[in-house]
Write a structure and sequence with these properties.
It is built from six helices and no strands. It has 170 residues and is mostly helical.
Length: 170
């Protein structure tokens, strides 16, 4: 049991979790713990997780962490996530982020989500979406399922709807 307890303490010390009793560590274990904690700190800083202590980083590690933080920010911005600082994007990243935002908006409009901002669509995109909605409506009326608004059908389309599929007017 004592060996297992010692190993658990050593692991807790290396991982920075649980109850770590440094007085129970040999000098070589103290060195191994310091190395493990240093690696964990670098990993936490690079990944933006855990407890990152920038003051413990070497200049080379600081450069790696700065690059990782920049990449994470660029990805957050491109994905539309909250943790995004647009001021830290390069011009190329800013263009890519704007394009991604625009594509998300088009998708939101296609899906009828409330996050759709029609004012940000081009006239071509607005027409494309209107045509797609018109086709969706016509198909719903023709097939007899889905939301059908007969008032939005052309006279030719309305006459093509089978009698059993025509929605009742109320």
């Amino acid at each position: 049991m004592a060996v297992a307890a010692h190993q658990r303490n050593l692991t807790d010390c290396k991982d920075g979790i649980g109850d770590c009793d440094h007085s129970q560590l040999s000098p070589s274990e103290v060195g191994a713990v310091d190395t493990a904690r240093r690696r964990l700190n670098v990993s936490d800083c690079e990944n933006g997780t855990g407890l990152c202590d920038h003051s413990q980083l070497t200049p080379a590690e600081t450069s790696e962490v700065t690059a990782a933080e920049h990449q994470r920010n660029a990805q957050n911005c491109e994905n539309g996530w909250d943790d995004c600082d647009h001021s830290k994007l390069t011009p190329s990243e800013a263009r890519q982020t704007a394009n991604s935002q625009h594509q998300r908006n088009i998708s939101a409009c296609k899906d009828g989500r409330e996050t759709c901002d029609y004012s940000k669509l081009t006239s071509t995109e607005t027409k494309m979406l209107a045509d797609a909605e018109h086709n969706r409506n016509y198909t719903a009326c023709l097939k007899g399922y889905g939301y059908c608004d007969p008032s939005r059908l052309t006279p030719a389309e309305a006459s093509a709807i089978p009698t059993e599929q025509k929605p009742s007017v109320r």
